Amino acid sequence: MTTTKSHRFIGYKRLGISLGVIAIVIILLAAISYFWLPGYAKSQLEIRLSEFLQRPVTVASIEIKPHTLELIVHGFQVGVKTDSDEPGESLFSFNRLYIDLSIKSLKQRAPVITAVALTHPKFRLIRETKDQLNISDLLEKFSQPSDEKDDDGAQFSISNITIQEGHFEFIDRHMQTDHQITEINLGIPVIANFDSALEHWIEPHFSAKINGSPFALEGKLRPFTVPQEATLALKFNKIDLSEFDRYAPLPQGIRLLSGFLDSDLLVTFTQEPDQAPIIVLTGNTKLQQLAIKDTTVAAPYRTNVKELNIGLTQVDLMRNNPSQIKLKMDQVELTREGESEPALSLAQLIIDRIQIDTKLHRITLEETVLDRLNTTLRRESSGQIDLARLFEPIDAQGQTQTQAQIQAAKVEAQKSIPIPGRKPTYSNAGVKAAENKSTQDTSITPSAHARKEIPSSNNEATPWTTQIKRIKLSAARLSYEDLTLTKTPPMIIDPLDITLDNVDLKGITPLKLSINARVNQRGQIKADGSLSWSPFATDLALNLDTVDLVSLQGWMGDKLNALISSGDVSFLGNLKAQHGDPMKILVKGEAKLYNLNIFDPKNTEDLLKWKKMDINGLNVATHPLRIDIKTVRFSDFYARMILLPNGDLNLVHIVQIDKPLDVEVEAAKNTNAVEVKVTTPDIKPIDTYQIKTPEETLIRIGQVLLHQGNINFHDRFIKPNYHANLTGLTGQIGPLYPGKFGVIDIQGTIDKTAPLKINGKIEPFSDNLFLDLNAKVKDIDLPPFSPYSGKFVGYAIEKGKLSADVNYQIENGALSADNKIFLDQFTLGEKIDREDTVSLPLDLAITLLKNRQGEIDIHLPLKGSINDPEFNLGDIIFQAFVNLITKAITSPFTLLGSAFEGGEELSEITFTPGFANIEDESLQRLQTLSEILNDRPSLELEISGHVDPVTDHEGLKLAMLQKKVKAQKLAEDVKKGIASSTLADITLDSEEYSKYLEMAYKKEDFEKPKNIIGLTKSLPDAEMEQLMLEHTVIHDNDLEVLAENRANAARSWLIENGGIAIERIFVVSSHETKIDEQKSGNRVEFSLK
After folding, report:
1. What residue numbers bound the domain in which 246 lies?
2. What Gene3D superfamilies does the record point to (predicted)?
3. Residues 256 and 194 placed together within one structural domain of the fold
4. Which of 357, 476, 735, 1044 is the S-S candidate for 322 at Cβ 3.0 to 4.6 Å?
5. Residues with Cβ < 8 Å from 33, sequence gap 6 or more?
């Protein structure tokens, strides 16, 4: 028992000693922990960290509580490098770090930390130069690969992780800006990879203020499960993005002026072993008061967006599945630099869904709505649309690109859309240069070891396609102003609705187009059809109703030398166009042009106007040109036609034709070059008066109808000016096309008093012009024509009226005209002295032509060839008139011949040689002459008898023979007591003639042939006549008497039978016609005085 007690004592003793040793060790360890270890740890921490970080590290104190396994670090600070220009400043610091190690670590044989709390941490990051940070050396050191292998299987548990009142300050000395993240608070309940904790969600939370704007993150994660899962809620409010403008990846020339970012996003992370992670972003983000300035264009502008909402239905950041986004923008405004009113505004932009498929490289947009777009287009004096300058890029030298470059940029637009996984490309050289080299490069370039290459997508070579299912422009307002025109009201299109369906940005697949617009409160534009642009093709049904033309006239540029002061166009039909070289266009439908007024601003006069022009059955095709019009109807039209002082017609110059240019291209220094000289020759008169069109060109106009037309003609070429007004023009012309005669039938009045009628046929489009035109006008007052009479003949017109009936025919280039002109009471006025006046015997001509009623009737035929380069119808008419008047001096009966057929023959009558008897043919001439004289009582007639020295000499012998034979008859009748008339009245038959010839023969006193018995031999009649003629002697006085008898015979007939007063007829001296004269000598000549 004693032994047992002894053993038991020894055991207790040993236990006591062991416990004492343990207690002593614990006490010693506690003492070391409390008194020595903190100081040692503090010194070692400062020494080792200072050496590793190459910066002074200080620790205010360290508390170690072995009994509670707590560690507290107070006043930790990492200073700046010794060569810093800010000695005494800190790089990183915190007030307190608390770590609570659980005793369970022994049981779990792994660290179990129940709390980690960091209080008031502060980090100060400084960007010293363009590529240098105050921690650049640390980044390079930490980026070095480590030789130590990570123990992925190590277990741990950390609970109650908190960061309180943290502070981060970023000082950018290069950009001269400061940014701060304050009130940083982080809480993580637990992170553990124990088997019992794997299925538990870790729910961290984070909050802070970024430059004073709240920012919060909440989420939950299971990082150690299979698969790994995590969700993160990103919530922040009104983050001022302008603070980060200089760090944003924007091209040079584009600045973020303002913008506040709100976010409510959820990031979901899932990753299976040996598979790519799935990261999906959902939620909403909002940008408010967004303002961006763009100076990369010809007209710098500012874009303001009141609110931009982006709804992320599903965005797969790892590009495994298609992403879906919603977009909404409110109150978008584009304002030019220096202006307050926006050049373009948009009340709302909504895109229901944007689907981005990175595998198929396809972007699909659902309905895109642009609501209440409002803009003003101004056509500048240069002809350019000002709004286009907002989108016209400039190159690196600040010069605008050519239109060809802009077009190329449009083609490449689809390649320039920034999409996930693809770097944007820029057709703008200035933007590209900014991307590569910026004058204010905001990038922070780490060391070479810190850079990592990002692999490109395998599908990068596959081109991206963009499909928009619908674009809808709703209730838009478009105002168009043309600054090339003065005082022209703008064209306002309000509302404007456009719908585009199935839009393929490549333009290969035709889209469906619908347009509905109201123009200037009354006009309407509707269009429905299809459109594609690669290649270009369109098929549209158009309905234009009362669309104002005034604002559109500027598009003619310098081509229009007048102003359209009013005018509305309507069209109902189809328009088709197809790409080609050249482009083919087809237009079909009905067109109307209402209330057109073309104004001459220089002379402040109307040029052209009409109430309505209807074009029915319009069919126009190009290449080859085809113009087919069923009917063109003009109602209440007016044209002011002016012959200008230079001889041109004003209406020809309404549309300006470019002048011919001489261009010389010299070969440069290239010895193989060919010198080319391109010269446009001067315009010369055409060699044929015909419309020459290519064989394939066809122009067909069924009918042109005129109703109540008015042509106001002014001749300013003549001084003083002439004016005439053609009113009430009504009728038709047509059809007009090759192979068909067009009928012309037009009626009207001149100066509202003289009726005018034009009718005939025309074929203007054939190879050879055909014209058969009749025009009649009655009782035109002639005094207004005094400018022409004064210029050409030197006299004004005092009074008179003109009526005309003219016919003009053109066929195969030959012109024939028949002008019947009637002048009533035509009286010349005062003489006008002009150097260029043609001297004409007008007084005599008027006296010759005017009848007793004061009327002049002229027939003036014309002939010519329009193929003659010198052809001028006016010159032909005037020359014919001059010739007519000039002949009044030399041959007045030619002038009379214009009114009486055979007028040239009235100047004389002829006689049988030797006789003074008036024959039947001459009686007709005397009858006509008496009518002329009776109609013209102011005319006097001179009569002169003529004889031929040869024919009348012999003829006079025959006349004397006939007188001798008739004298025998007369003597015998007297003997018988038979009453008889004069010798001229005696007629003889053949038997009587032979009887009385023999009697006259026997009485002749000359030697006659005898018979054998000595008596006068009986001879045949012919021999007796021959002997008598041979022995008849004619004296000179006999010829003179014959001439006088002829003149007296004509005089007597005119007085006795023609009724001409004796005092108006004068017989002048007789003449003997010379042998060499071409006229017949046995005649009587008449001359008028």
Report:
1. 226-321+331-340
2. OmpA-like domain
3. no
4. 357
5. 64, 65, 66
User: Considering the domain boundaries, does residue 554 fall inside one?
Assistant: no
| Domain contains 920 | no
Peptide bond into 735 cis (omega under 30): yes
Is pLDDT above 60 for 947? Answer: yes
Non-local (6+) Cβ contacts of 21 within 8 A are: none
- CA dihedral of 53, 57, 59, 65, whole degrees rounded to 10: 20
Nearest to 60 by CA among 46, 80, 79, 81: 46
376 and 292 housed in the same domain: no
* Per-residue pLDDT tens over the stretch 527-581: 999 988 888 889 999 998 888 877 666 656 556 667 777 888 899 999 998 888 8
Question: What's the domain count of the chain?
Answer: 6
The single-letter DSSP state of residue 736 is B
Please tell me the least confidently modeled range out of 75-89, 438-452, 645-659, 1026-1040.
Answer: 438-452
Domain boundary among 899, 915, 939: 899
> Is the same domain home to 243 and 212?
no
Predicted confidence (pLDDT) per residue in 1052-1075, tens digit: 999 999 888 999 899 988 765 554
- State which H helix or E strand residue 822 sits in: strand 814-831
If pLDDT is split at 50, 70 and 90, which confidence band does 667 have?
A: very low
In a domain, 501, yes or no: yes
**613 and 483, same structural domain?**
no
Residue with tokens 């604002």: 551
Burial class (CB in 10 A: 0-12, 13-18, 19+), 13: exposed
pLDDT at 669: 42
Asked, for residue 1009, whether it belongs to a domain, the answer is yes
Strand boundaries in 106-246, DSSP class E: 112-119, 122-129, 132-133, 157-172, 177-192, 205-210, 213-222, 228-240
Entry field: residues in the chain? 1089
385 and 285 housed in the same domain: no
